[in-house]
Amino acid sequence: MKDILFTGCATAIITPFRNGSVDMDTLRRFLDFQLENGADAIVVCGTTGESSAMSYQERVEAISCCVEHVGGRTPVIAGTGSNSTSNAVTLSQDAERCGVDGLLVVTPYYNKATQEGLVRHYRTIADAVSRPIILYNVPSRTGVSIAPETYARLAEHPNIVGVKEASGSLGNVQRTRALCPEDFTIWSGNDDETVPICALGGKGVISVAANILPAEMHRLTQLCLKNDFAAAGKLQVQLKDFCDAIFCEVNPIPVKTALNLLGWQVGELRLPLCPPSEAHFEYIRQILKQYSLPVRR
Length: 297
Fold this sequence. Notes:
This protein is of the alpha/beta class. It has a single domain, classed as TIM Barrel. Helix content is 45%, strand content 14%. The chain has 13 helices and ten strands. The chain has helices at 24-36, 56-70, 85-98, 115-128, 139-142, 148-154, 170-179, 194-199, 214-225, 229-238, 240-245, 253-261, 278-290, and strands spanning 8-12, 17-18, 21-22, 41-44, 76-79, 102-106, 133-137, 160-165, 185-188, 204-207. An eight-stranded parallel sheet has the order 9-8-7-6-5-4-1-10. The chain has a two-stranded antiparallel sheet with strand order 2-3.
C-alpha cells in the first residue's frame, strides 16, 4: 500500500515578489500564517505561485526556502511540471535534493500529448525520482485531460500516488475511483468542488482559497474526512461567493490582489498576468468585506 502524502487542505501558495525578485522574507511570514492556521500541506511553485513566469533558479530557491522554513512541520510539495519531459525530470530531481516531501506534476501544456504520451511522460519522471508524485489534471489550462483509464495505468507505478483533479468532471472522478486502487488518492483541484469530490472518496483539496482562508478550508476538509457531509455541505455553500470572487479572473490575479488588499504586500503579478479590471478589483474588495476580512485599503 502507498502512503497518503497528506489528507485535508494543502495550500497552493502564492509567490510574493518585490522589485523583480522573489520576496523570501514575506514568503516565510506567509508560511508561518499558513502553519498557524492549520495548513495540512504546502504546495510551492504551482500555478498559483506563478511558476511559469519564474526563472529556473528562482523556482529552486523558493522550493528550498519553503522546505527549510517549514522544517518538517507539514509536508512541502513542489510543483515541478513542464511541457518538456527532460526539464520536468531535472526540476523534480532538484526539488528532491531540496528535501521536498512530494512533487506536483501538471500535464504537459501546449504539446497536447496523447494518452500514451502522458503515460510515458509521467513514467519517465517517476523513474527518475524517489519522492511521491501527484499528477495534476487541469485541461482548461493545458489543453489535454488525463483519462480515467490512463490514471489506472499510471497508478501501477510505485511513485505515482494520486491526482489533483481539476477537470471539473465529477463523472471522471467516479470513473477514476472505480478503475484505480484504493491507495491512488484523489484530491480536489477546485475549491468549490471539495465536498463533492471528498464524497466520492477524495482525501481533501489543493486550495487557492486557503491562501486567505486557511482555517476555514482546513475545517471544510476535516468535516469531510469525518463523514459529516451535512455540515461540510453547508460550509461549502457559505464559501461559494468567496470562491467565485477569487476566480473572477484567471488565477492567481484575484487571490494576489486580495492579499494585497489585506495588507500582505505580496507584490506585483508577473507578465503576462496583470492587475484585474477596476470592476473586478472592486468586486474582490467587497467580497473581502462581506466575509469580514480586514481590508486595509
